[in-house]
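Regression check, UFG case 341:
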Amino acid sequence: MRKKVLVTGGAGYIGSHTVVELFNAGYQPIILDDFRNSDESVLDGISQIIGSKPELLRGDVCDTNLLSKFIKENEICGIIHFAAYKAVGESVEKPLNYYQNNLEGLVAVLKVVSMHPEITFVFSSSCTVYGEPFGQKEVTEKTERSIPTSPYGYTKWLGEQIINDVFNSNADLRLMSLRYFNPIGAHESAAIGELPIGKPNNLLPFITQTAAGLHDQLTIFGNDYPTIDGTCVRDYIHVVDLAEAHVKALDFLVKESKGCHEVVNIGTGKGSSVLEMVRAFEQVNQVKLNYEFGPKRAGDVIEIYANVDYAKELLAWQANKTITDAVRDAWNWEKLIRSIE
Ligand code: UFG
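Current build output:
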């Protein structure tokens, strides 16, 4: 029988890809989502890939009654907690919404986990917790962190701290925080992908939307940074690789006999500049992209990429897909949703 896993925010970008990979690995994922930041059509996309509609618990992750009722009625082996707000700029404008939703949701889920130590827990953390990492480009989980550059970043930073404190109060719990670098791409079937609501903030969806004609041009934020070509460098990871890392994390925790709070970088270990991403997109897809250089964006880290040794050691996981795969899959997805031939 398939082991059940609750996936909060399972209708979102990373959540939906993780639901697919959990199913492929023999788990039974159950999505908890209220679709405030996603579209219900993602369920059809998932069912195109896995052959059936995933189970859905419709609701707010902060609703502790809903969670307790669900746990009473279902035997689950783990919770993967994605449901949270994630736009850096919006978090600066509406910090209280971010602190309330992201921290309240996490606390609600951790209360359930504390009462049911048999349930394992995986948290969506982010490389944003490193802040500007003191001039160090490749970061390990032990790299000294500077302060996050946004309220969103603080919610991830505090999230890890809260999980630590909960673990210190109950050392039997099996917990893991995954620090994602920059997820990009889409499922290779183009049945699911990223669906930003409104104007995208992130690079790849802005590139694909510009190529699709939704924006006149991409503005590259800054071209005189001390990097290979003057533009910022990030560790872009294919979303399907990232989804597989969650399966490995869950496999690890479910087998683990003693309590833990593991913190693991999930990236490729390789940095790419904004210009390199633009060129890769153009070359792979044979599409010309209109872009200009603009002023720097406040709060941007200059250069950061993951040291991925610990992910390999602990989870036997490493990224398999390339930037070429990611820009091709992202463009196929964009073309499909915009009905471009
Ligand atoms: N960029 C542009 N033009 C755009 C959009 C982005 O030049 O229109 C540049 C940015 O300046 C940056 C790079 O592309 O150099 C990547 O930017 P993203 O917004 O795609 O990603 P970030 O690295 O800023 O943010 C990501 C996640 C956050 C997370 C952060 C941690 O989206 O959730 O990494 O560093 F907090």
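Comparison notes: The chain is about 40% helix and 20% strand. Residues 86, 88, 126-128, 153, 182, 201-203, 206, 218-221, 232, 234, 274, 297, 300-301 surround UFG (CB under 6 Å). No diff flagged against the previous build.
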